[in-house]
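Rhodanese domain-containing protein (Scylla olivacea), 170 aa
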Amino acid sequence: MEINHKDITYEELSSSYKERTIIDVRNRNEIEACGQIPGSHCIPVTEIKLACDLDPESFKARYGFEKPACEDDLVVCCKSGIRSKAACDLLQSKGYKRHRIYRGSFSEWEEKGGEVLKPGQPYEYNFDDNSDEDCPSGPATEEPSNLISDTSPSTHEVSLQARNNYNKSL
């Protein structure tokens, strides 16, 4: 069964990204090499199931921000929109209902002149008024081999599945 997800456009996101929870599902190396939408949070697509299953305290320790509730509005992006579709399918299966795909993703964001946070560049604003710290940019707390369970699909499998699902939706 094909799952349809709502989209968000560059225009919508560029005027409201500071108020939104944006999940960037690219891997950390891509984000470090290319930059990210300011305020977005890195949860690689291969970790989405794991992230959804973590208790709030463990989630915050691993990803550096409060675990979104299933009712929270989320925007999911990647480099070009394919992995975000796979991530939204996984979020949907874990009970998250209010997520939107930024199909243009980081490539469009950068191409259209959206603000880009480069590695090592500090945030200029704080997203959580109740916190004294900005979004952390430190390394993951576990070795990469511990981030994916034995039953998680490989990145290649997720990419192939996402590409097939995306092509079917066209």
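The beta strands are 6-7, 21-24, 41-42, 74-77, 99-101. The chain has one domain: 6-169. ok done for today
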